[in-house]
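Design job #97: recover the sequence.
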């Protein structure tokens, strides 16, 4: 993706979130120059993969296959083995009409996907086989505490306020229903590690390669390594 496109998506997303009365934490608005001056006190943001995350999954066509995410809070996988570890995560997503997030599951992450307002979110579901193929069996999920069963590849539609609980190893893809407008989507989950926990059914690029045609407005979390002086020591200290 071009940096200019990423910058524009950031501006458009901020406008949409403001309209929806949703606000990002302070570090969302640190400029690249501010990041250069930051010290070890903010290493958690880096080690726990918090911040802006805009991807076209390598499609070259963000509007058709892509997703806007911002990770608001997160733990690390190592926290799972601690009795008092930070084992949870929260993200905010924006999904456009007919904009697909490709079929995937998570090896350990269980996630609740919540329609926080706007249009309607369509989610297609499959169980996975032991060989990580699409199973032909019916899928039963909990939607706001109510067990719901669909056929393999069947869909569930989340209207504003509705949510679905996706257990690990359950294949899902989603998009915004045509004609219903963009959707503000919440994600509340176990810890998230996008480098090792995602299984995409078809090979995609989870992170876009960025063509630097202008300066970044704000950093994607994938940019921290190029702007944050304590990046490597933060990773070394956390044992990642
Ligand atoms: Fe997912």
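Job complete. Output follows.
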């Amino acid at each position: 993706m071009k940096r200019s496109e990423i910058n524009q998506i950031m501006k458009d997303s901020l406008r949409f979130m403001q309209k929806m009365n949703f606000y990002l934490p302070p570090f969302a608005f640190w400029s690249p120059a501010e990041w250069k001056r930051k010290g070890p006190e903010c290493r958690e943001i880096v080690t726990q993969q918090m911040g802006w995350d805009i991807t076209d999954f390598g499609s070259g066509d963000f509007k058709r296959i892509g997703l806007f995410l911002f990770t608001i809070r997160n733990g690390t996988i190592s926290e799972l083995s601690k009795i008092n570890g930070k084992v949870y995560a929260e993200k905010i997503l924006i999904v456009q009409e007919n904009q697909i997030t490709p079929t995937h599951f998570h090896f350990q992450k269980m996630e609740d996907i919540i329609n926080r307002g706007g249009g309607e979110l369509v989610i297609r579901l499959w169980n996975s086989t032991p060989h990580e193929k699409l199973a032909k069996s019916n899928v039963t999920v909990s939607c706001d505490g109510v067990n719901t069963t669909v056929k393999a590849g069947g869909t569930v539609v989340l209207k504003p306020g509705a949510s679905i609980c996706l257990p690990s190893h359950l294949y899902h893809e989603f998009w915004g229903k045509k004609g219903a407008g963009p959707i503000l989507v919440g994600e509340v989950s176990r810890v998230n590690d996008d480098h090792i926990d995602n299984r995409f059914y078809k090979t995609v690029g989870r992170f876009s390669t960025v063509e630097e045609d202008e300066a970044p407005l704000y950093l994607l979390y994938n940019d921290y390594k190029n702007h944050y002086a304590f990046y490597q020591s933060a990773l070394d200290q956390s044992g990642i």
